[in-house]
Amino acid sequence: MLGDNEAMTTAPGELVRAALRAPLTRRARREFCYCLAGLVPGVVGFWLIMTLLFAGAGLTVTLAGAFPGLLVLALTLRLARRVGELHRWLARRLLTGEFAAPPPFRPARGLLRRLDTRLRDGAGWRAVAYVALKVPVSLLELYAASFWVSGLFNMAFPLWWSQFRSHPANVHLAPFPVITPLPGVDFRVATAPGTLAAFMLGAATLLAAPWLTRAVTAGDRWLIHSLLGPARLAQRVRELEESRAHAVDDAAAALRQVERDLHDGAQVRLAALAMGLGMAKEKLGENGQPVDVTRVRELVESAHSSAKEALVELRDLARGIHPPVLDAGLADALATLAARSIIPVDLTADIGERPTPAIETIAYFCAAELLANAAKHSNANRVFVDVAQRGETLRLRVTDDGVGGADPARGSGLPGLVQRVRTVDGRLDLSSPEGGPTVVTIELPLRA
After folding, report:
1. Residues paired with residue 17 on neighbouring β-strands, in sequence order
2. Helix 192-223 vs helix 122-155: angle between axes, to the nearest 10 degrees?
3. 358-375 confidence digits (pLDDT tens)
4. Contact 431, 398 (CB under 8 A)
């Protein structure tokens, strides 16, 4: 376990490495592309939706144009849904995470009832709100993207310095302005040291670019979830239905696995034990015949071996259902798990109030799965496990210094962990850029 001083000296180094790697990560490139890709649909969608919205609203206040105005508003809501679909598609292609779609529109029969249903379409009105907010968000995203462009441009100043000097001796060149997205910064290059200053400014701007784009896209991501996804109540109901379905499927799969393990393992051992004891009984019960002590001893030894193997398999099966080490608490269970790990593990535990047994079991198996993943895929030299209580939440964080690039789609067991955590209203966050580190944070309620 690392001491406090070692942890304090390690953290700044990790932060510096993460900051230097940030502009080179795939996530940063995709977020930069998203900032640029959403500009045109945002501006065009805003102009089109707002034009139709104000036209429809203007017509409805007139006696003759009330019905056409309602038709225009209905068309606006339908078009807003389509614009929202485009923005969700861009987010799914370029940003990480899931972006659920709202429930499909269910039209009623008849023109008037269909019009009334369309005008009361909550998802359509939320899409209109997103389109209205997308313009300022797009401007912020464009501003964030300018950090990338200006950073790369300014870092090239030393390469262009020879071009500045290729002029007759009697010609005086005016200072060349440096492109900077920072307001109030007026910087011009006229000398060789100035090109170095421009390079340093460009490097600083480029290092800040991925964090700025991440912040802006995080706000856009929140708007998409809030306005272009299902309503919160409907989303909550859907999540609970999915969690219940997965819990039922997991329970059925676990029962089938227990049945197979008993049938193929312990049951076979016990059957062999019964046969061996039966044969030994027959040898001992033959009337008038001398007892073959050697043969009887072999049968008893074979039966004894089968009994021990059956006990081992039953013990392993019971440990898979509920590890006995959890009886002493989650901290001791994780310490035992860390001691058995192939990769050295530094464990920090700060648990005040003990969670319920179900939460402890989920946290234990999640930690076991993450340590197994680190041993198989990460090429890490060390793993850091931190479990702590934060209010009414138990937070488990597993970090490794491996190669990163963990992808739930490649069968690393992470989707199963997500479903296991969601059954108790928990959450799992993954950060695994190329080159590492991989950080998995699991938050669970203390009671379930």
Report:
1. none
2. 170
3. 888 888 888 888 888 888
4. no
Report the first-to-last Cα separation within the chain, whole angstroms. 30
Q: State the DSSP string of 48-63.
A: HHHHHHHHHHHHHTSS
DSSP secondary structure code for residue 179 in this structure: P
CA distance 200 to 193: 11
Tokens 């290059």 sit at which residue? Answer: 189
Exposure of 84 by Cβ count < 10 A (0-12 exposed, 13-18 middle, 19+ buried)?
buried
Q: What's the predicted TM-score (pTM) here? A: 0.53
Structure tokens at 30: 């995709």
Taking only the tens place, the pLDDT of each residue in 392-443 is 889 999 998 888 887 776 655 677 788 788 878 788 888 888 887 888 999 9
Q: What HEC string does 349-408 produce?
A: EECCCCCCHHHHHHHHHHHHHHHHHHHHHHCCCCEEEEEEEECCEEEEEEEECCCCCCCH
> Please, what is the Cα angle at 367 between 363 and 368, to 5 degrees?
120
What is the dihedral sign for C-alpha 104, 110, 111, 113?
negative
- Class of the CATH-defined domain 325-445: alpha beta
Axis-axis angle for helices 66-94, 39-60 (nearest 10) = 160
